[in-house]
Design goal:
The protein is of the alpha/beta class. The chain has a single domain (3-261), classed as Alpha-Beta Barrel (TIM Barrel). It is 37% helix and 18% strand. Strands 2-3-4-5-6-7-8-9 form an eight-stranded parallel beta barrel. Helix 2 (59-68) runs parallel beside helix 4 and helix 9 packs across helix 10 (247-261). The two termini are 19 Å apart.
């Protein structure tokens, strides 16, 4: 269920739900993979679909997710890597992606699409022009933009996004040179992503599981809860990407508990 505070409704979940190492930690060992999303939906009311970054699925896959979640989950989906990393996508690719997500959008269960740009995507004129094009391709669909490079972390950038109808993503990352600061940003909704604060492995880790190997202490989450409540934003999505060894599951539960405990 979504949690409300005054006018704010939050949806809390994790980045993905199909982690093999969650079996035994979260998913009962007797569950089939096809039952994982249904089980997940009994604990969390939002999920970020990671698989769409690697391959655009058939529309029927989204219909299946909708059915297996029993209408209890709001979905956010990463744009395919061709939109954010290779920058080879075009208007036709955007139309195909929108078509794939149509069942979820029609059901009122699409929170936002996520454009997760890499560290090398810097605040230069060519990048801003690309964002303008991207906004045009997905006009009418909420698109949240995550920047990894600190050159974007400026107030005029957030006004630029608002003018394009794009949403800023608030990120919690290690305190390393070149990365954005952990500041709550919001548009029509707030979109928060907790990547963990693993300084040692962020740039040096072999893969995402090493970079995101981190467990937040409640004291590290509390300032975000306070800021989000004070913002009075109408709707917020909160996703934990530190899914290694189920740590994001624990932090998602703790965030919900802190949300309910704070006045």
């Amino acid at each position: 269920m979504a949690y409300k505070f005054d006018m704010t409704q939050i949806h809390v979940g994790t980045g993905g739900f199909s982690n093999e190492d969650w079996v035994g930690l979260f998913y009962p060992s007797e569950l089939k993979k096809t039952q994982w999303l249904e089980f997940y939906s009994e604990h969390f009311d939002a999920v970020e679909i990671n698989s769409t970054f690697y391959a655009v699925p058939a529309q029927k896959s989204m219909t299946s997710m909708l059915e297996r979640s029993g209408g209890r989950v709001t979905f956010c989906a990463k744009l395919h890597g061709s939109f954010t990393h290779d920058l080879t996508a075009d208007a036709d690719a955007a139309a195909r992606f929108r078509f794939t997500m149509q069942p979820i959008q029609d059901a009122g269960k699409l929170g936002a699409l996520l454009a997760q740009f890499p560290f090398r995507f810097k605040n230069v004129p060519e990048s801003r022009a690309y964002l303008t094009t991207l906004a045009g391709w997905f006009q009418g669909v909420p698109v949240a933009v995550e920047f990894r490079h600190q050159s974007w972390d400026k107030e005029p950038v957030y006004q630029f996004l608002a003018d394009l109808g794009l949403l800023p993503v608030s990120v919690d990352l290690p305190a390393l040179e070149g990365l954005p600061k952990p500041v709550l940003r919001k548009g029509d909704l707030a979109y928060l992503r907790f990547h963990g604060r693993n300084r040692a492995n962020w740039f040096e880790g072999k893969d995402a599981s090493e970079r995101h190997d981190y467990l937040y202490a409640p004291a590290e989450l509390e300032p975000w809860v306070t800021a989000l409540k004070a913002s009075r934003v109408g709707q917020a999505f909160v996703f934990f990407e530190n899914t290694t060894r189920g740590q994001g599951l624990q932090n998602a539960r703790e965030f919900k508990a802190l949300w309910g405990a704070q006045p």
